[in-house]
Design goal:
- The protein is α/β, with parallel strands linked by helices.
- It contains 19 helices and 8 strands.
- It folds into 4 domains: 2-87, GMP Synthetase, Chain A, domain 3 (2-Layer Sandwich), CATH 3.30.300.180; 114-259, 3-Layer(aba) Sandwich (Rossmann fold); 265-333, Helicase, Ruva Protein, domain 3 (Orthogonal Bundle); 344-441, DnaA protein, C-terminal DNA-binding domain (Chromosomal Replication Initiator Protein Dnaa, Chain: A).
- The protein has helices at 2-15, 17-24, 46-65, 114-125, 144-158, 169-182, 185-193, 210-225, 246-252, 265-278, 287-295, 300-317, 323-333, 344-354, 359-362, 369-385, 390-396, 402-418, 420-441, and strands spanning 28-32, 36-40, 70-72, 134-137, 164-168, 197-201, 229-234, 256-259.
- The strands form 2 sheets. It has a 5-stranded parallel β-sheet with strand order 5-6-7-4-8, with helices on both faces. A 3-stranded mixed β-sheet has the order 1-2-3, covered by helices on one side.
- Strand 2 (36-40), helix 3 and strand 3 form a beta-alpha-beta unit.
């Protein structure tokens, strides 16, 4: 049943990869009679899935199969007539409902996402007037989709009847292909161009799809020129979308490009605390959250997924959610290396040696290219590997200030987006630095 595949894709998008794999991936379609979607769930988790995910299951089913759809997990008498084709929306059609948990109140603000949050809120309050388009750039799992849904929820609640629609670039492509096949392009165009706010997730998937790019280009122009709001997310900067036409990349850059970087430890703990409160998770020891935040550092979905896995073990074993249980679960997923972080001196020594410089040259005031780029790499690596504050890093590199450290990190980030060889260079240096620390620990 193609609609079941669509529902599963929507569920994965809404709850995140880790949560989906643990709880929802085992669900199997048993029957569909036009009104009741009957799903088979493992007996051990059926009650938990029904209590925790029943509403989101029903919401996704209704978005795909129609407003009257009901979902059951534990059997029932399904009537055996086939669904009407007319009752099933076209694959990939944009949605007008949003995950209620993805709102601005539940979004934890930290140093890495402050600009993106502020821009998204400004767009929600003044669509088409603040930043248009707004382009949110971040690796997967850092909150881009949360902000899109937050904008959608806000506009629906306070937008005075403004229409807001959400889709992914992949769903847009599927919808376009279906419309071409059915010779129904006009309804397809209206579905997007009549929106006051259009939210497009993962635009990198437009790459190398010439006909879809052409249609998206005209949709973008129609909305932009009429003052409608566009918000786009991507896992890379616009200029790095080399397989997308230049004219589209230029339009993506025409508004505000806001990036989101991985959360620091305090923000990760705050995210976990908020999630625990939302799910009414009772912790025997609050330090459980600190332990999880120490192990999972670069992905919010993985962070929340780790908490969910701890809760799952608690549910299945009836053990309290304490440090012992959390450590047992986390050791199987994110083992603790037990070694100390490298020092800034380790970073400087390795980078200087790799570029045939002395440490004195590396931290000097020289702006020569042979020194400046290794210095910027070393500053980025110090930030990634040592856990030192920006001020401490600046002090260790010849008394540079906080802004200079940030500028160096931005230069590295920009070159990473444009040159894949830089990523390999960073990985090699990181390995050498960690090996130097490991050798000393031995």
């Amino acid at each position: 049943m193609p609609a079941w595949r669509t529902i599963r894709a929507e569920l994965r998008q809404l709850v995140g990869e880790s949560t989906y794999e643990i709880w929802l991936a085992p669900l199997e379609l048993k029957a569909w009679d036009g009104e009741l979607l009957l799903l088979e769930a493992p007996a051990a988790t059926r009650a938990w899935v029904s209590d925790r995910f029943g509403r989101v299951l029903e919401r996704c089913a209704r978005q795909t199969l129609g407003a009257g759809t009901r979902v059951a997990l534990d059997g029932g008498d399904a009537r055996q007539h086939a669904p009407s084709r007319a009752s099933v929306p076209a694959p990939g059609a944009p949605r007008e409902t949003f995950n209620p948990r993805y709102n601005f109140e539940q979004f934890i603000i930290g140093k890495g996402n402050r600009l993106a949050h502020a821009a998204a809120l400004a767009v929600a309050e003044l669509p088409g007037q603040a930043y248009n388009p707004l382009f949110l750039h971040a690796p997967p799992g850092l909150g881009k989709t949360h902000l899109l849904h937050a904008i959608g929820n806000y506009v629906l609640a306070f937008g005075g009847g403004a229409t807001v629609r959400y889709t992914t670039a992949e769903a847009f492509t599927n919808h376009f292909i279906a419309a071409l096949g059915a010779k129904s392009l006009e309804p397809f165009k209206r579905a997007y161009r009549d929106a006051d706010v259009l939210l497009i997730d993962d635009v990198q998937f437009l790459a190398s799809k010439a006909k879809t790019e052409e249609e998206f280009f005209h949709t973008f122009n129609a909305l932009y020129e009429s003052g409608r709001q566009l918000v786009l997310t991507c896992d890379r900067l616009p200029r790095s979308l080399l397989a997308i036409e230049t004219r589209l990349r230029e339009r993506f850059e025409a508004g505000l490009v806001a990036d989101i970087t991985p959360p620091d430890h305090a923000t990760r703990v705050a995210i976990l605390r908020k999630r625990a409160a939302l799910d009414q998770i009772k912790l025997a020891e609050p330090a459980v959250l600190d332990l999880i935040a120490e192990r999972v550092t670069n992905n919010i979905r993985a962070l929340e997924g780790a908490l969910i896995r701890v809760v799952a073990y608690h549910s299945l074993t009836q053990r309290p959610i304490d440090l012992a249980l959390a450590a047992e679960v986390m050791n199987s997923m994110y083992p603790d290396s037990g070694s100390r972080s490298p020092s800034i001196g380790d970073v400087q020594a390795v980078v200087a040696g790799a570029y045939r410089l002395s440490v004195g040259e590396l931290i000097s005031s020289s702006r020569a290219a042979r020194v400046a780029w290794p210095r910027q790499l070393a500053i980025q690596l110090a930030r990634d590997l040592t856990g030192a504050s920006l001020q401490t890093i600046g002090d260790s590199f010849g008394g540079r200030n906080h802004a200079t450290v940030l500028h160096a990190c931005k230069r590295v980030s920009d070159r990473l987006s444009d040159d894949q060889h830089i990523a390999g260079e960073l990985d090699d240096l990181s390995h050498q630095i960690r090996q130097r620390q490991a050798d000393r620990d031995c």
